[in-house]
Amino acid sequence: MNSATPNSRSASIATSSEDQNTAAKLTASMFNSLKGRPIQGRVYQDKEPPQFIAIFQPMVVFKGGLSSGYKSYIAEKGLDDETYSPDTNSVVRILGTAVHNNKAMQLDPPGVPVKYQKEGSESASFWLGLGGKDDYTSNKVSLDTFRDPHLFGFSLCKGKFQIEEVYNFDQDDLLPEDILILDTRAEVIVWIGQAVDPKEKKNALEYGQKYLELAESLDGLSPHVPLYKVSEGNEPCFFTVYFSWESSKTLVPGNSFQKKITLLFGAGHAAGHGNQGGGNTQRASAMAALNSAFSGPGDGGKGPTKGPGGGGGSQRRAAVAALSGVIADVETPDSPEKPEEVPEENPEGPIEPSEPIPEDHDSEPKVEIEEDENGILSSQSTFTYEQVRVKSEDPAPGIDLKRREAYLSVEEFESKLGMTKENFYKLPKWKQDQTKKKVDLF
After folding, report:
1. What is the 3-state secondary structure (H, E, C) of 344-361?
2. Could you write out the DSSP letters of every residue in 41-63?
3. If you count Cβ atoms within 10 Å of the first and of the last residue's Cβ in the chain, which end, N or C, has fewer?
4. How far is the CA of 421 from the CAs of 46, 124, 426, in angstroms?
5. Residue 423 backbone phi and psi in degrees, to 5
6. CA–CA separation, 29 vs 67, rounded Å?
7. Preceding peptide of 58 cis, ω within 30°
């Protein structure tokens, strides 16, 4: 769901503010009526992302407009109506190499006759207009410019917009109580947790715009990059690609505390945790306090007030990380309050004891991976690419499914991944996963 806006450089054909406001209201209305499931975005002309261009095949951008707002705008400004007509000749520029970037745009007709010259056979007058002939490269320029993505939390302090970067981020940093901003340089995505206050959810795009203005002044980010609004549980592929994403985590309901309990001990334990008759009263009080700290205003919790952008995110992350150690004590067999089990009588006679299972029993032992001081992974046991790939018909037994590449020989590693191990493990984690996906190793 996108509202497209012409680039401000084309002032003569700019959409009227009336049309822009109408488009924004319509997309917001559709977003709310569908309970936040779509991805709401704002796209500027000439800055269309691949996923937008791929919708229109072919995508052709004509001059002018047909809306009443545009007609009123040019009449008010005394401008010529340049709206495209099939009865007139037009100059169209076509760019693109694939379905995701194939685009055509109508241009102003030239005021002089057009002459065509092939590369390598240019006339002297051609080079004279460019300041003289010189050596230049004829290699194709790659349009894929990569930059490490950055994830930010933010806060509003006395009306001032302040950001705080989340370093070495992963999916677990996306807490339901937070609004976070992902900057990939090519686009800015505002992620909204389910436990965020409804008033803050409505302002998500405004926070994204504030970030764009700040990034433009500090980092030179274009103010016209696509801006998206994404809600928790509805993340698109162009967002999840920057994380080691596990879809199962998005299906767990509740706040950060409840999600952690569910992932550690299952839904039944999370639901019944506060209703246990026995157990340590002191521990139960502590758990209740933690739960209230993670509850948002809408959950009836009386925890500390926190900013919309996750100002207290680091404290919550630290508390969540410590839960596994705290809660594990509940299940210890040494608990003095655990009632003694009484064996039931079996009318059919005593049950024969089963054979004991050795402690080191493992139906499929893991093949160990070693990591050197430079973070390079390797294994003494190597397997072929056909054995370690995801869709293998003869999979290697006992390998770490998240580190399939570590079992390849040096030759196959460089052949399949197109780089040495040293260069591969220098890449950020999201880029490693993206590279492995291309060769069926992730």
Report:
1. CCCCCCCCCCCCCCCCCC
2. EEEETT---HHHHTTSSSEEE-S
3. N
4. 38, 50, 9
5. -70, -35
6. 20
7. yes
Choice among 100-104, 234-238, 274-278, 413-417 with the minimum mean pLDDT: 274-278
Whether the per-residue pLDDT at 261 is higher than 90: the answer is no
Residue 350 to residues 191, 343, 344, 346, 353: CA-CA distances in angstroms? 60, 11, 11, 7, 9
CB atoms within 10 A of CB 101: 15
* Span 270-299, pLDDT tens digits: 555 444 444 444 455 555 555 555 554 444
User: Going from the N-terminus, what domains does the chain have, and what CATH number goes with each?
Assistant: 2-109 (no CATH), 150-246 (3.40.20.10), 250-331 (no CATH), 370-438 (1.10.950.10)
Structure tokens at 89: 């000749």
CA angle (251 as vertex; 152, 435 as ends), nearest 5: 60
CB atoms near residue 205 (< 10 Å): 19
Q: Which H helix or E strand runs over 268?
A: helix 267-272
Q: Give start and end residues of each alpha helix (H) in 4-142.
A: 17-33, 50-53, 68-77, 124-129
DSSP H or E run through 91:
strand 91-95
Which residues fall within 8 angstroms of residue 15, CB to CB, at 6 or more apart?
Answer: 5, 6, 65, 69, 70, 73
pLDDT band at 178 (very low <50, low <70, confident <90, very high): very high
From CA 247, how far away is CA 267, in angstroms rounded? 17
Long-range own/partner contacts, residues 79-86 (CB < 8 A, 24 or more apart): 79/12, 82/12, 82/13
Amino acid in the structure at residue 17: S
Eight-class DSSP state of 338: S
Q: Are 34 and 25 in contact (CB under 8 A)?
A: no
**Read out DSSP for 170-217?**
-GGG--TT-EEEEE-SS-EEEEE-TTS-HHHHHTHHHHHHHHHHHHHH
- The pTM of the whole model exceeds 0.85: no
Three-state secondary-structure class, residue 32: helix
Query: Are 223 and 216 within 8 A, CB to CB?
Result: yes
Which DSSP category does 405 fall into? G
pLDDT of residue 274: 44
- Residues 100, 53: contact at Cβ < 8 Å? yes
Rounded Cα distance between 410 and 405, Å, is 10
Summarised one tens digit per residue, pLDDT across range 89-122 is: 777 777 777 766 778 777 777 666 778 788 888 8
Residue 170 and residue 317 in contact, taking contact as beta carbons nearer than 8 Å: no
